Amino acid sequence: MKQRLIFATGNEGKMKEVREILADTGYEILSMKEAGIDLDIVEDGTTFEENAMIKAQAVMEVCGELTLADDSGLEIDAFGGEPGIYSARYLGENTSYIEKNQVILDRMKDIPEEKRSARFVCAIAAVFPNGQTRTTRGTMEGIIGYEVKGRNGFGYDPIFYLPKLGKYSAQLSSEEKNQLSHRGEALRKMKEVL
């Protein structure tokens, strides 16, 4: 029987990415929901790593199994790194990404290309049943684009432009995204830890 690994998220888009990248680790990868875990976790850390660790720790304490969690977000240099660790809660808990993306584009409209730099950051924390912990970090550099483009991906992907590829993050295939993304990089580093 495969050893189980719980990934502390309810986000289906994220689970798809996680399963694709960790497919060959030999673990059965379950979301919190699939593992029957329903927790309200307060992420009150000050970094992506702290928030990921808070989630992984909380879930591991409930299930007693190897748990991974991630915290990720968008850092926009022109905004001093905002929305950062508040990416999911930016402009309020219930604000859609359609609205969030539009507000960012509006705020950026007079900012020249060389000052539009941004990155997606992802930290992944692992908490092992024996109490050991590890974190990894990945980033994907780009700029805030000038429009909403693409149908793949979620969140801020449609406004995140990759100049080297001439594409928005939401225009990447899932294979391309797994190769290039912040989560892909952090997961590959975590794969080595596992």
> Spans of 5+ residues with little confidence (pLDDT < 50)?
none
What is the count of helical runs?
5
CATH topology: Maf protein
Question: What percentage of amino acids are in beta strands?
Answer: 15-25%
Reading off the top of the CATH hierarchy, the class is best stated as Alpha Beta
Number of domains: 1
Distance between the first and last residues' Cα: 17 Å
Q: Determine Rg (CA atoms, Å).
A: 17 Å
Architecture (CATH level 2) name: Alpha-Beta Complex
The SS-based structural class is alpha+beta
Strands, count: 8
- Along the chain, the helix and strand elements come as EHEHEEHEEEEHH
Mean pLDDT: 94
Structure description:
The chain has one domain (4-193): Maf protein (Alpha-Beta Complex), CATH 3.90.950. 29% of the residues lie in helices and 25% in strands. The chain has 5 helices and 8 strands, in the order E-H-E-H-E-E-H-E-E-E-E-H-H. Helix 4 packs across helix 5. The two termini are 17 Å apart. The mean pLDDT is 94.
